[in-house]
Amino acid sequence: MYFMKHMYKVAFCFFLLLQVGIAVGHVSAEDDSDLMPDLYRTQDVNGFMPDRVYLRTMTQTYCKGYNFVVVDGRIYVKKDNDKKWTLFLKTGLPFSKDNKRVRSYFTPPAAVREICADADSLFAFDSEGALYNCYINFGTKEKLFSWHKIFGWPKRSPLVQNDLVRDKRGWSMGVRRKDILWYTDRFGNEHHYGTMGLETVYFLTKDGRHIRFTDSGLPTDFSHSIQCPLDGTFIAENISVSGSTIFLIGSDGSMYTRLIDFDTMGCDPMFFKYTYNYEKQNTKGSDYLSNYTTWALPAEDWHRQPSIPVEGSVRLSKLISIAQTGTGNDARELRVAGCDEWGRIGFYHKQLTEVNWAFTPAPLEIADSMFLDKTISAVAANDNYHYTGYLSLNGVTIPSYTCTVRDVPLTSGRKLIWPHHIAWPSERMNIKNSIQWKCGRTWLAYNPRFLTARQKIILSRRSLIQVNLSRFLPRIPAR
pLDDT: is 468 or 74 the higher one? Predict the structure, then answer.
């Protein structure tokens, strides 16, 4: 009898310890079979169940009116004016309200591993890498606080992290809709978001040099990519996105931003008109009709952000965050976790177009592995290609001419200036002209005023000289 009472006491004490453990820290529910690990050791930078979320990470995030955290595989929510955290939608797990016979029905996952919120949307990945999304603010015609596991268009289907992105350095999600209201193209023309807007999911790949993405209007795969800054040689340590504006940081503390998504790249002629020719339009972005005006191409370039001065005890981390703060392209706030010159922990912050950074102390918990290591290079060798081909006149190859194009990156919608070299046995000519790369098609344009007398004779017949790269000689990586 005494033994039984003793065992009851032990069991009761164990139960109390378990409850205390849940209240003060994580009790890992991670299974060895899980494809997605629990990231709380590096991503819970805001602390355990913090008063507020200061930086958006893969386990802690915020958007208009809401803070979210992942604890032991469950999503907790805290509204801006609330004092306590509660399980999101009472369960903390995505669940379906649909009939079991409907294709959109799904069973709740075992655990949630990663989350991201922006504007009106909350996205989550479960322990198997499957995506779920929930609308939490008015902005779409979708029902609020209802989980979905199917994504994309034209066929809505589950999106699952595959080998292209599973070993990512980071991921983030951005919503460009009514809170931003309009997009300003490179000609200064404003364009209303329309009736739908879009949510785009961006993944920084394992090598830190490419960004894979998909959105609510694309097939559920990661076949689309954006090249990182410096012609793809920049190595980013982390990524954060809000309102389609990407924020990257390198190991040396250099930072870049760029507003880019499938629509602004010029890849959506089904819904938008595009042009490379300058056009000035007077319709304001607050006017819905500006959605139908012509969008300028190419999309905006990467912008290098002002550096944070590293003096005294200043240390910067790879924990970065961006959040939309109003209408238009520039309404974004950047944050970087770190220590100031007196060694205080907090975050540096500024608006997107401001020059100077300010520091705010905050109760952050930054793992040593998350601080930047300046001994690691932030720039890699160029891995673009050289192409070698030939000249043809009216479909007939011109003998003795060879043509080469150097440093060709076939990614990211933008206008590129490449040096083209045309060689004759006794002479060599370099031509610089615009080659526009857009969604898998190229346009090659040569200006006759750059040609030599011998080549002008050929052109005088009003025949077009084309550089044929479809049968290029072996592709040689640029050195």
Answer: 74
3-state secondary structure string across the chain = CHHHHHHHHHHHHHHHHHHHHHHHCCCCCCCCCCCCCCCHHHHCCCCCCCCCCCCCCCCEEEECCEEEEEECCEEEEEECCCCCCEEHHHCCCCCCCCCCCCCCCCCCCCCEEEEEEECCEEEEEECCCEEEEEECCCCCCCCCCCEECCECCCCCECCECCCCCCCCCEEEEEEECCCCCEEECCCCCEEECCCCCEEEEEEECCCCCEEEEEECCCCCCCCEEEECCHHHCECEEEEEEECCEEEEEECCCCEEEEECCCCCCCCCCCCCCEECCCCCCCCCCCCHHHHHCCEECCCCCCEEECCCCCCCCCEEEEEEEEEECCCCCCCEEEEEEEECCCCCEEEEEEECCCCCCEEEECCCCCCHHHECCCCCCCECCCCCEEEEEEEEECCEECCCCEEEEEEECCCCCEEEEEEEEEEECCEEEEEEEEEEEECCEEEECCCHHHCCHHHHHHHCCCCCEEEECCCCCCCEECC
Query: Rounded CA gap, 249 and 317, in Å?
Result: 9
Q: CA–CA separation, 355 vs 307, rounded Å?
A: 9
Q: Give the chain's mean pLDDT.
A: 83
Checking if the pLDDT of 22 tops 80, the result is: no
pLDDT at 399: 81
Reply yes or no on whether the pLDDT at 70 is more than 80.
Answer: yes
What confidence score (pLDDT) does residue 429 get?
A: 52
Fold of 40-370: Neuraminidase (2.120.10)
10 Å CB burial of residue 448 (0-12, 13-18, 19+) is: exposed
